[in-house]
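Annex B. Sample input.
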Amino acid sequence: MKLIILDRDGVINQDSDAFIKSANEFIPVPGSLEAIAKLNHAGYAVMVATNQSGLARGLFTISDLNDIHDKLRHLLSGVSGHIDDILFCPHGPDDNCDCRKPKPGMLKAIAERCQTTLDAVPTVGDSLRDLQAAQAVGAQPVLVKTGKGTKTIEAISKLPRGSKLSSTPVYDNLAHYVDTLLEK
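Annex B, continued. Sample output.
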């Protein structure tokens, strides 16, 4: 099975420090939907793993989150694409759950659902915690510069010398990464 895991905010859609709280605030990063469709047409199962602490903070409801994901699915259908599954962590940063990235709980759940290991599975994110979660399960961390990506490049540069994450490949955006992946 060809599998890829994507973070949502900052990778698929534009991120906001005020959180994406409604379907109206969900604005795709240019080229991201088409990139997902390309992955689908190349035989990839596309999974999303996203921290959504806005739920725990009371900024939006599960109904709002479902509306956001319905909009994502609808927009993808317009470009002949789809997401195979979306996993989300509803907890806040201090809840000490196993699913909030950088902990690997959501990624482990994806491996179980897909009945596979995540060894070298591309896991695309824009934050250090996305990359750390990928590394924890043996997946291949991939960083995009959209969202928090530029700040994450700086954070990676401050990691201890020899850190495996310091060699994380960096791409302009999801479309750039997918084009590169599919050319191989």
